[in-house]
């Protein structure tokens, strides 16, 4: 009724009829068009407006509710002001204002009343007293030094505004710091904040009882049926009798959670004072299925449609060895590979034995490759390293070029440093990869060579919705000739994650009608992403690069374009349309994979 009366007073009958149709459509569309409905419905003016400092308006707007009906008489005004004094005073006290002045003004009959809020002086911290009890309070140099360090790290210092959130956070940080090493049973015995509103200062007192110092006891493992307990105990970064360290327990738990043999893992100790000299370490595990067969399908503009079958056995020969075999069929590449991995040790190191058969037909170059190798791998913090010895035999047959069968035995080293805020959807950070490997005619190789490669990727956030992405890579193979060297140790460029606007591996050395790998390569990318929603975004980019047989032969190609980005549940997806400066063709670059 209100809408109809409002429209009839404001518009002619003809205007009302034309406005009614879209208005009804908006109402039928439901809550999803709430913003659009506001355009058609006149908003009710507020019963009371609030005049407060800018820094406090958000707090009051969020947590203080003005009266639902206009303040028209003295009883209504008195009831509202009693509530306003009580609620606003409590809100301002959380920010350190304890003497506010709250008044209600009536500027004119045709305007709503104004609730004026003057917060008064802000209360500052004038004194901090932190007292320790328990084992930590023993008069001993190491403990005294730790106490001084804890007091120095107190986050709500002298002269700072006394805010309730900051007060609670400071106590939580203090307790966590005490409990992190030696004292998991630590507790705050007393905390008191004495506020003097007249002097606008606060005196803080915190008493922490550390309790006794704890040492590790034996592991108490639950949930093991298939595996031996040594699998767990060998990964523990501590031994019975060592002093308690929370970071060690968390690191131990993370190692167990990352093992494919377990679907879940939890590690903790019970901080009972009676067991502090040898506290049992509780390890609760849930074993994962030992064997699994999975299938997947996908499409990439690099290698075409793809289907694959994967078999995994996490307990081969009842020794917790992990066997992983993959058969992958793509339009331009067909691969069968199998890998046997040992269990990572306490230092995050494990060994792998593997082999593969691989056939490719890309840019008129057909290759058949057989490969076997053994590697030592390690993950330590943000650093991943790999040292491998590989033997491979490659049959290369470029259309119109020289047909060769090459073999090599390679010592190959790889290092990757990853420091990003999110490993799946990075917005900030970098990834650096270095690789060096080579072979010799003296040891089962047809050519002497040394391959070097470096790649760096960098993400830089600009505001909340924008990300600048930079990528650069450089490779050089030192050798008297490219002949006799398998394609894995040479370079081609073009396609996704290289130079978009050009077909996959179309930049390289022309041999007959085919494009083969050269001894030098360089590419770079600058890309700007704008996230329209948390899941969907758009990007513009420029790629540059080439691969050739010598530095002088490099003729840098440039590709540029734009695309869309989607943070899908299975990982990032990019759909790009790019133009290359060579032939001027528009090319679509796209990749997606689905597991069954």
Account of the protein in words:
This protein has 9 helices and 27 strands. It has 596 residues and is α+β, with helices and mostly antiparallel strands. It has 5 domains: 2-36, no CATH class; 49-118, Ubiquitin-like (UB roll), CATH 3.10.20; 124-209, Roll (Ubiquitin-like (UB roll)); 216-287, Ubiquitin-like (UB roll) (Roll); 355-595, Porin (Beta Barrel). The strands form 5 sheets. It has a 16-stranded antiparallel β-barrel. Strand 24 (536-548) and strand 25 (557-568) form a beta hairpin. It starts with a helix and ends with a strand.
How do the strands and helices of this protein lay out in sequence?
Elements: H1 2-10, H2 13-29, H3 34-40, E1 49-51, H4 54-63, H5 74-93, E2 101-105, E3 114-118, E4 124-133, H6 141-152, H7 164-180, E5 187-196, E6 201-209, E7 216-222, H8 230-233, H9 246-258, E8 262-269, E9 279-287, E10 291-300, E11 304-316, E12 321-330, E13 333-341, E14 349-362, E15 365-380, E16 383-398, E17 404-420, E18 429-439, E19 449-462, E20 466-478, E21 509-511, E22 514-516, E23 520-531, E24 536-548, E25 557-568, E26 571-580, E27 586-595
Parallel strand pairs: 1-3, 4-6, 7-9
Antiparallel strand pairs: 2-3, 5-6, 8-9, 10-11, 10-27, 11-12, 12-13, 13-14, 14-15, 15-16, 16-17, 17-18, 18-19, 19-20, 20-23, 21-22, 23-24, 24-25, 25-26, 26-27
